[in-house]
Amino acid sequence: MPGGEVGSGGIIVYSKPGCHLCDEGFEKVKMIAARFQLTVTKVDILSHPDLEVRHGERIPVVEYAGEILCWGRISEKRLDREIRKRLENQGQSPISER
């Protein structure tokens, strides 16, 4: 699943129910994803024991192009910069004018 079929070509946010940081982070990720016309998939780590072991309390975790970009309190500025950098490395022109 990670870096694979779920959210392929988009951003994956690993989270769990009842996590206020996850809810706040997911909203920020959706805003940033819209700037770059990327999809966002939310994955409940409690539904996947391997993900629960891997990420534990270090949630939310944001993954793009198979790489973990950030976790915990999500910084819009940092996430925007990280996605822009990866798009440029892939030879794509970032759409965001931010």
Word description of this protein:
This protein is of the alpha+beta class. The protein has one domain (11-89): Glutaredoxin (3-Layer(aba) Sandwich), CATH 3.40.30.10. The protein is built from three helices and four strands; from the N terminus they run βαβαββα. It has a four-stranded mixed beta sheet, with helices on one face. Strand 3 and strand 4 (67-71) form a beta hairpin.
Which sheet architecture does the biggest sheet show? 4 strands, mixed
Instruction: Trace the largest sheet across and list its strands.
Output: 2-1-3-4
Shape: globular
Which structural class do you get from the secondary structure elements? alpha+beta
**CATH architecture assignment:** 3-Layer(aba) Sandwich
Span between N and C termini? 31 Å
Share of residues in helices: 25-40%
Rg value: 13 Å
How many structurally independent domains? 1
CATH topology: Glutaredoxin
> Could you name the ranges where pLDDT drops below 50 across 5 or more consecutive residues?
1-8
**Mean of all residue-level pLDDT scores:** 87
Name of the CATH homologous superfamily: Glutaredoxin
For the secondary structure, the number of strands is 4
Specify the number of helices: 3
CATH C-level label: Alpha Beta
Order of SSEs: EHEHEEH
**Beta-strand percentage?**
15-25%
